[in-house]
Amino acid sequence: MSNTVTGAPDAATTLEQANRSTQARSWNKQDTTWVISLFGTAVGAGILFLPINAGMGGFWPLVVMALLVGPMTYLAHRGLARFVLSSKNPNADITQVVEEHFGVGAGKLITLLYFFAIYPIVLIYGVGITNTVESFMVNQLQMSAPPRWILSIVLIMGMMSVMLAGEKLMLKVTEFLVYPLIAILAGISLYLIPDWTGAALSQVPSAKDFATTLWLTIPVLVFSFNHSPAISSFALAQRRDYGDNAVAKSDAILKRTAMILLGFVMFFVFSCVMSLTPAQLAEAKSQNIAVLSYLANQHASPVISYFGPLVAFVAIVSSFFGHYLGAREGLKGMIVQNMSKSGKTPNTKKVEMFIIAFFILTLWAVAVINPSILGMIESLGGPIIATILFLMPMYAIKRVPAMAKYQGQISNVFVATMGLIAISAILYQLF
């Protein structure tokens, strides 16, 4: 009798696990939606400067970058997702997983760094969306823009309202935005083909220049393909939906995300670089303008002058969602850790309300002030993002028993090496 009673839940659990295992192996619409959402997080406004930064050294270093960036993107994000999924607690986000594996002190430090690496990027998007819409209204629509303090709060509340409505609406809106972004990127890449020249091909750098170009461009590639701020929320969603099969499912989704990013982004980069000479790329860099703005000025093309701001708008909004998820998680982690240390029980609803108010007010204030220092803050956040994305999961594989099963893979050495190269290049450029 007791065997029957105790066996019943086991049979039900086994059936549920079998169902989840089958679902994890098959591909569904929700998985595609996550691929699109992670793509949207990665393709921020940075992609508009990527052809200039990556193409300055000519065509041949770009070929090596294209070979490296796919494995770099997939393996680093896979490591971070596996790190989040290594927790005993099925609901633990990245800040709680760090505390569980490395102790309270390390947990607080990483949570603090994680927040201050992502939060400035969220602020940059608040400024960027205001500037993009204001410029479009004045230059393309030939109308006077409303006062900056009104325009910025309307745009910020629009983006925030999608996040407040929940994960499902955020994924739907991202999907709605990113499909046109993919289409426009592919369209512009194809549109530029008739303008391709051999100027970039003819520039063959010396071995030293080749290596230096590659070294200094790796951080640009890391951040142009970076979707780490959304990885913690993404991994938790996979665990909720697929249980023990979450690792296999997240691996599959991240692999497709990396492939789509590589295909569309690098085709766009190659097409831009092939249609401009190295001297023109240097001029675009000195003017500090996005590649589409430079191309529009060169060609007087209505297609590019119209689609340029649209790409910027869609890229900023879709990337804002993923970065907001990461920044919100970091801030919540800090608040909960400090309250728990003081012996207080956090009131989840009050904490959430404070976080929402904090983001709206700070985003609005910075968008109205419109500072130019934010680029520097983003570059300072660079080493932190590279450390969390590339090095922390590899360190955990060495030190954490729950991740020991991933030891001995050559991919671990590759990820750690690329992380160290990225960090060294960022620090070199800073100092």
Which terms would index this structure?
81% helix; 18 helices; 0% strand; mainly alpha; Amino acid/polyamine transporter I
Euclidean distance between termini CA atoms? 73 Å
Strand content: under 5%
Mean pLDDT over the full residue set = 86
Q: Any idea how many domains?
A: 1
Number of helical segments with 4 or more residues:
18
Level-2 CATH architecture:
Up-down Bundle
- Radius of gyration (CA) equals 23 Å
Helix content: over 70%
Count the strands?
0
Give the SSE order as H and E letters. Answer: HHHHHHHHHHHHHHHHHH
- Spans of 5+ residues with little confidence (pLDDT < 50)? 1-7
Categorize the overall geometry: globular
Largest sheet: none
CATH class: Mainly Alpha
Would you tell me which CATH topology applies?
Answer: Amino acid/polyamine transporter I
The CATH superfamily name is Amino acid/polyamine transporter I
Protein name: HAAAP family serine/threonine permease
Pfam family, one: Trp_Tyr_perm
Catalytic activity: L-serine(in) + H(+)(in) = L-serine(out) + H(+)(out)
Membrane topology: Multi-pass membrane protein
Task: Explain the overall architecture.
- There is one protein chain.
- The protein has about 425 residues and is mainly alpha-helical.
- The protein has one domain (about 25-430): Amino acid/polyamine transporter I.
- It has 18 helices and no strands.
- The protein is globular, with a radius of gyration of 23 Å.
- The model is unreliable at about 1-5 (pLDDT under 50).
